[in-house]
Design brief:
heterodimer, A: 64 residues, mainly alpha, B: 475 residues, alpha+beta, Amidase signature (AS) enzymes, 8-stranded mixed sheet, 3-stranded mixed sheet, 15 strands, 38% helix
């Protein structure tokens, strides 16, 4: 079962603007088309761009 | 329009006049404020003009200079900033209805730095609502108009900054850039806009649009003014978790315009694909100018660019939607229709899609890094199309009707995804509208791109022409 865009948004507490809903649906289809299947890019091995820095922001490695 | 030419001068031209007391900050500020007031009925650039505060700050600067305490290039220079950068106790609206009465309790780090440099703040400048758009056609405060043609958009989201600097109602400005919002209005309004390397300039105290893509950057009349302003605002800031502790550099001193042996990279597949023919020609002519001065050209491949538009949209829309999630649920009708739609769009992608977009970004960074092992800079058009008519969602691209917004951010977005520095500066005209060229460089390579920018600026691409909104009938 696939949910409509309106239902997906509703499940997140967001009421889609009925006046722009057709544009939102068209835009979402464009975004999906832009993504393609990502087959031409070796992202499986690529780390994500987020960092997990222990100790807080800007902590440099320190030696005792 | 004022006949006095002080408002036409750059910061670098004004600075020696101020330092030697040939003109006073008060005299200069009065002229800028007058231009700001007069410009409102034509271009609507300002959200708020600080008449009284600006004159007080100018008097203070004047006293300091008279006492021999000249602080440097921007001391006594009147400047307004985009209305998403916090000035303590001053209404900061983000050009939104929801934040119409918001008063920050602290200054943004960049505002503190401007004040330490002796800048005279003249007010806040209009923007696309929450910086989330490129037209500056604002449903709450009215459209900002392009001073070169009042029917056209000034670009956005820092459209007020672009328009104000173009007519001299602010000598320089600060904008923010998430997908091109400094460079797009710079291109559309015929000025210089610099998106620095991510982390070089603190974002503390600027209202976020998309944390991982946001930047604060200078918008100025000239390349050297941008270098001088970057010297003031760059620097590590513990208050910004994305700030990078990079070695300090004096950018202005490194901008000489010497491009001998500079290697220029050209990526035809993405950055010269689907470009307006006239714009294509202007940018290639500027590259030829650099070659005539001793630069070389190499073609480069950046394969992952085919996913750049998708990664930009997913990262941008989801992060923005997260920031505005509560208001999107509780008071959606208080957003303009266009940004409400965009924030709704940002609630749709899955976590997997967001994370894949971040993987694409890592690959893009790697591909750009490889390109910069071969070349010093990359050059492209800033925009593939000329500024569109206000209210028009489509643009004419070589006879084909194309979506305006998607195309406007297509060439600027990759520098936000990768965090590399990118500069836009004028390279000529299409009809009566200025056209911008983009120079990208390796991370923390601001000096390189500013230097190449100066070499192009020295070819006088604006041919001495200035916008005159006062001679145009209101639309």
């Amino acid at each position: 079962m696939s949910l409509s865009i309106q239902e997906i948004l509703k499940s997140k507490g967001i009421t889609a603007n009925p006046q722009t809903l057709p544009f939102l649906e068209a835009r979402w289809e464009e975004v999906q088309a832009l993504r393609g299947d990502l087959t031409n890019i070796p992202i499986d091995d690529a780390d994500i761009g987020l960092r997990n820095i222990p100790g807080g922001d800007h902590v440099e490695q320190q030696t005792n | 329009m004022l006949n006095n030419k002080l408002i036409d001068l750059s910061a670098l031209e004004l600075a020696p006049l101020l330092e030697t007391k040939s003109i006073s900050p008060v005299e200069l500020t009065k002229e800028v404020l007058q231009q700001a007031e007069q410009g409102q009925s034509k271009i609507n650039a300002y959200m708020d003009i600080y008449q009284e505060d600006a004159l007080q700050a100018a008097e203070k600067a004047e006293q300091e200079i008279l006492n021999g305490q000249y602080r440097g290039l921007y001391h006594g220079i009147p400047m307004a900033i985009k209305d998403n950068i916090y000035v303590q106790d001053k209404i900061t609206t983000m050009s939104s209805k929801i934040h119409k009465d918001f008063r920050p309790t602290y200054d943004a780090t960049v505002v503190k730095k401007l004040q330490e440099a002796g800048v005279v703040l003249t007010g806040k400048l209009s923007m696309h609502e929450y910086a989330s758009g490129v037209t500056n056609d604002n449903p709450h405060y009215g459209a900002v108009r392009n001073p070169w043609d009042l029917d056209k958009i000034p670009g956005g989201s820092s459209g007020g900054s672009g328009a104000a600097v173009a007519i001299g109602s602010s000598v320089a400005s600060l904008g923010t850039d998430t997908a091109g919002s400094v460079r797009i209005p710079a291109s559309a309004c015929g000025i210089v806009g610099l998106k620095p390397t991510h982390g070089l300039v603190s974002k503390y105290g600027s209202f976020p649009l998309s944390w991982s893509l946001d930047h604060v950057g200078p918008m100025t009349k000239t390349v050297k003014d941008a270098a001088g302003l970057l010297d003031i605002i760059a620097g590590f800031d513990l208050l910004d978790p994305t700030s990078v502790n990079a070695p300090s550099t004096n950018y202005l001193s490194k901008v000489t315009g010497d491009v001998k042996d500079l290697v220029i990279g050209i990526n035809e597949d993405y950055f010269f694909n689907q470009i307006d023919d006239d714009i294509h020609q202007l940018v290639k002519a500027s590259i030829q100018h650099l070659v005539d001065q001793g630069a070389k050209v190499e073609t480069v491949k950046i394969p992952s660019l085919q996913y750049a538009e998708w990664a930009e949209l997913i990262s941008f829309a989801t992060e923005a939607s997260a920031i505005h999630h509560t208001n999107l649920k509780n008071r959606p009708d208080d957003f303009g229709d266009d940004i409400r739609l965009f924030f709704e769009l940002g609630a749709l992608p899955s976590a997997v899609e967001y994370l894949q977009a971040q993987q694409v970004r890592r690959q893009l960074k790697s591909d750009f890094q490889k390109a910069f092992e071969k070349v010093d800079i990359l050059i492209s058009p800033t925009l593939p199309i000329a500024p569109t008519t206000i209210g028009d969602h489509f643009a004419n691209l070589n006879g084909e009707q194309v979506d305006a917004v998607t195309n406007i951010i297509r060439l600027t977005g990759p520098a936000n995804l990768t965090g590399i520095p990118a500069l836009s500066l004028p390279c000529g005209f299409k009809g009566n509208l200025p056209i911008g060229l983009q120079i990208m460089g390796p991370a923390f390579g601001e000096a390189k791109i500013l230097n190449a920018g100066l070499a192009i600026e020295q070819t006088n691409p604006l041919q001495g022409r200035k916008p005159n909104p006062f001679a145009q009938a209101n639309s």
